[in-house]
Structure formats: structure tokens, C-alpha cells
Amino acid sequence: MANPAFESVDPPYTAFRFEVVLNLDDPPPGITNPVCHAAFTECSGLEMALEPKTFSQGGDNLRQVHRIGPVTYGQLTLRRGMTANLGLWNWIAAAAQPGRNSKAQGQVTMWDADGTPRLTFVLTDCLPVRVGGPSLNAQTGQVALEELRLVYSRLEVRPAGQAGLGLSVGISAGVSANIGVSAGVSAGLSVSGGPGLTGSANLSASAKAGFNLG
What we know:
Blueprint: H1 4-7, E1 18-24, E2 42-44, E3 48-50, E4 53-55, E5 65-67, E6 71-73, E7 76-81, H2 87-95, E8 104-111, E9 117-132, E10 145-151, E11 154-159, E12 169-172, E13 179-185, E14 189-192, E15 197-198, E16 201-204, E17 207-213
Parallel strand pairs: 12-14
Antiparallel strand pairs: 1-8, 2-7, 3-6, 4-5, 7-10, 8-9, 9-10, 9-11, 13-14, 13-17, 15-17, 16-17
């Protein structure tokens, strides 16, 4: 007899099928939407927390009373194999200019094992706070990675495809645990996959493809 507990549990999603799309409200020169063609290999910092206010009632020494405080959000950290695309560096340089609107609206979409988009994390009013280059060492053959950290004013989780998520379309694919394929198309198609080497080659006037080899 089958265990009903197992039959009622949905399989968890994988961590290597995802897409990150960042669209700037007012892209400065040198940046096109989505930023870096959405070709990010790592994403972390999707979190929100409540800061409780705690106090004790007089005469009740065995209990603490908690009240809900303000919501705080984490910093999103994105990593990608460094290429000639300097979108991240141009973005933070533009954000440092007074009077410029450098905010971006972000989406992080997760796929299930069958490649179906399931959940989308919606990030509102993203601002870059740090960008870093790779650690260089001639004795290793490691991939050169650049890193972006950004803050956001609000985080929402919605079923993928729900109205209000925008017009960006993306596909994330992992060929195996160590191999991924990344591609960006100017028409709006973007792909991000597993960690590794990111390169790019022009396929036509409107499409680029990148390969991640790890």
C-alpha cells in the first residue's frame, strides 16, 4: 500500500534552474535591458525578516511578549562569468551620479525539474551598492567571476506567469550539474544556467549565446 504522506508532498524545485531579469527604469548609455542579458550563474539574498519588539509584563517573569516590528530585506548577490559586457559597472557608475534614476525592477523565476516556471520573486526598486571584479591568480585555471550586490525596497513571491510580472520572457536550463548554457536575445529571450565559464559569440545582429563550462 502506498504511503499517503509521500503522495501528498510536492517534489521540491531544483536550485540550478532559474532566471534573473533586471530592467532599469531609465537605462544610461552602455546598458541595455535586461542587464547583462540576464546571464547570471549564481543568485542569493532572497530574504525578508520581521524585527519583533519584545517586552515583559510586570509580575510575569516567565514570559516575554512579542509584537510585530518593521520588515527588513536582505541584499541580493549576483555572480556571473566576466565578459566584455560592462553593464554592472556602468550601472553602479550611473547610480553615483546625482539626480539620475538608477532604479531597476527585478524578477527571479524558479523552474521545476520538468522545466516549467513555478515561482517568481518580484524585487521592487533595486539599487546597486557594490560591484566587484574577479580574484586573479596565474597559477589556477578558475573562471573569472564578477559580483553585484543590490538592495531592494520590497520582495514578493508569486506563482510564475501571474499578471503584473511584466513582459520579460526567460528560460533557464542546466545541462548537467556542471554544465550550463546561457543565451541572451535582444527581443527579450534570456537564459541563465549553472556556474562556470561564461563566454559570448555573436550569432546575428540580434542574438548572442554564451556557454558555461564548469
